[in-house]
């Protein structure tokens, strides 16, 4: 089937490739990166992974106090997604999303604060809520207990995080030092403007020196996330104490004496926070709600856009296949593929409102090509597809078949990776947006791994051979 080439950059790039055929040795020079570059990347990546495992790190993006302008900006972003959905997917039912977004601004008038009590199993969440609910800490307070953290089921963990996210303040209970997973959760709280207190409960079960050591460890561990005044030790439901009394006649009487809760430091800190930060606590909850609604809308929008983007990727992968099949010279293959991929980037960027200029698309196309070579994807895909094509004896001896099928496959990988990358980007009204190579590299690796299944490759080869003007066996 003939393909009409009506894109100026695409046509010009292919025409230029025929004039620059002497550039044949360039591909050999690039491929020198191959084995050692891949091994070096693996070694370096393994080192970073090891360090990351030893010391979990969280990018603390939001360290400054939350301002109302930031909250209103988040609401505006959610509204923008809603408008985009209405424009690009008029048949999509988003009535619930629209209603939730419309109610966001009403949250500024809210008076009641919700405090979530969370933590692992048997840390005393229920006991703490029972005592706090009976105290007159402040007006318009409600307490809610989350599902235990660290559960085996993912749904339970998600439910606990959702309750905490929808609350204005979180009391995070522990029985000892923090685990790495708990530290990461606190880091996520900090990133999401979630106000929280770290509470060491059941201190009565430890000796004084042990209690002091645990509290000091906790304060040191969370120092990047919070102030020392927000780390405290309490006893929400202390164990009964055995009392022994010796009588004059030498007998001994024993009984269990109930102990009262030791929450003075927590109640004092709560009263102070509510009095001084009530407004910001509510702002934080509205901001999180707005960002969650924006994400829900963006997922719907990405689904709509992906439906439009996939035919674009498939169109260009077969154009590349035909071009590479007709031009068996490596230099011509590289130049033609780069030109076609540049036009694909322009078209995909329009779908995802990224507005890549032609020059930026050309530069990005070259970067993507070099990255594929550096990661060894070109060599791996060519070897894999070549082995599959050996079963087609007639087509295997045709000079440009391997080049054509490999070029189509790599173009598909590049296109799918760009889709995944664009889906996470914010809308760019003007061209010149910086291409984040690090994030794209992550997407490229993921997409390549997902598309290395033998069944998929066999089907891809079958379809590709039907597109190329050769006789298959």
Describe this structure as you would to a colleague.
By secondary structure, this protein is an alpha/beta fold. It folds into two domains: 8-52 and 305-467, no CATH class; 110-262, Rossmann fold. The protein has helices at residues 8-19, 25-31, 34-54, 68-88, 95-102, 125-134, 154-165, 180-191, 208-221, 264-326, 330-351, 358-374, 377-389, 393-397, 401-423, 437-450, 454-467, and strands at residues 113-119, 141-145, 169-174, 195-200, 231-233, 241-246, 252-257. The longest helix is centred in the middle third of the chain and has 63 residues, at 264-326.
Secondary-structure blueprint of this entry?
Blueprint: H1 8-19, H2 25-31, H3 34-54, H4 68-88, H5 95-102, E1 113-119, H6 125-134, E2 141-145, H7 154-165, E3 169-174, H8 180-191, E4 195-200, H9 208-221, E5 231-233, E6 241-246, E7 252-257, H10 264-326, H11 330-351, H12 358-374, H13 377-389, H14 393-397, H15 401-423, H16 437-450, H17 454-467
Parallel strand pairs: 1-2, 1-3, 3-4, 4-5
Antiparallel strand pairs: 6-7
